[in-house]
């Protein structure tokens, strides 16, 4: 039935069903994993409820940056979207000082600068990292489209001048923007 403790099952080949824990695992690592997953799903539901109440695109972008910042564990997070001109314009920010946000919203990351950053970056799963001191950071178009922020935690693998970004793709796979978390609270780069 739908109640009671889950019990081990086997598939048609007689192999253990990897989804169902064995009796000796009850309360162990499998359930801890389920608890974490359930907690993450509750977070998704909370965001979905907030989405239902949004009236405009800016509210959606603000919600995305705030949720990404909190979920990923960064001090700041910004979103830039590709405009009709093909360049990327910063549209939402959270965790940055008001004067930095005003300056950021005036910056433009040209399509060529974004492409250069993407090619220079090291892939860490679905995000890209450009290490501090990389030659691409000296390109005038990259300098013109980025803003240096301070690092608020002691660095471990994260170094001042690091640039981390996650492309935002539409259904056809075209980059429509990017999410840029900055200053991880852990002081660490994300795992690959």
Features:
disordered N terminus; 7 strands; 5 helices; 192 residues; alpha+beta; seven-stranded antiparallel β-sheet
Model description:
The chain is an alpha+beta fold and 192 residues long. 34% of the residues lie in helices and 22% in strands. It is built from 5 helices and 7 strands, in the order H-H-E-E-H-E-H-E-E-H-E-E. A 7-stranded antiparallel beta sheet has the order 3-2-1-7-6-5-4. The longest helix is centred in the first third of the chain and has 24 residues. The radius of gyration is 21 Å and the shape is globular. The relative contact order is 0.13. The N terminus is likely disordered.
Give the total of beta strands: 7
Report the β-strand fraction as a percent range. Answer: 15-25%
The biggest beta sheet reads: 7 strands, antiparallel
Secondary structure class reads alpha+beta
Indicate the overall shape: globular
Cα-to-Cα separation, first versus last residue: 40 Å
Strand order in space, largest sheet: 3-2-1-7-6-5-4
Rg from alpha-carbon coordinates: 21 Å
Percent in helix: 25-40%
Order of helices and strands: HHEEHEHEEHEE
Mean pLDDT: 78
Identify low-pLDDT runs.
Answer: 1-13, 16-23
Number of helices: 5
């Amino acid at each position: 039935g739908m109640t009671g403790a889950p019990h081990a099952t086997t598939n048609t080949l007689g192999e253990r069903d990897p989804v169902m824990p064995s009796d000796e695992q009850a309360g162990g690592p499998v359930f801890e994993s389920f608890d974490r997953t359930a907690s993450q799903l509750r977070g998704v539901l909370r965001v979905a409820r907030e989405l239902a109440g949004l009236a405009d695109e800016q509210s959606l972008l603000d919600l995305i940056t705030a949720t990404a910042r909190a979920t990923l564990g960064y001090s700041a997070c910004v979103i830039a979207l590709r405009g009709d001109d093909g360049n990327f314009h910063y549209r939402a920010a959270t965790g940055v000082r008001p004067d930095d946000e005003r300056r950021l919203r005036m910056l433009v990351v040209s399509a060529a600068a974004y492409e250069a950053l993407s090619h220079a970056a090291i892939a860490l799963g679905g995000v890209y990292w450009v290490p501090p001191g990389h030659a691409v950071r000296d390109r005038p178009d990259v300098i013109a489209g980025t803003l240096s922020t301070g690092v608020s935690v002691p660095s471990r693998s994260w170094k001042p001048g690091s640039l981390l970004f996650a492309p935002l793709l539409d259904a056809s796979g075209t980059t429509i923007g990017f999410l840029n978390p900055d200053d991880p609270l852990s002081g660490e780069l994300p795992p690959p």
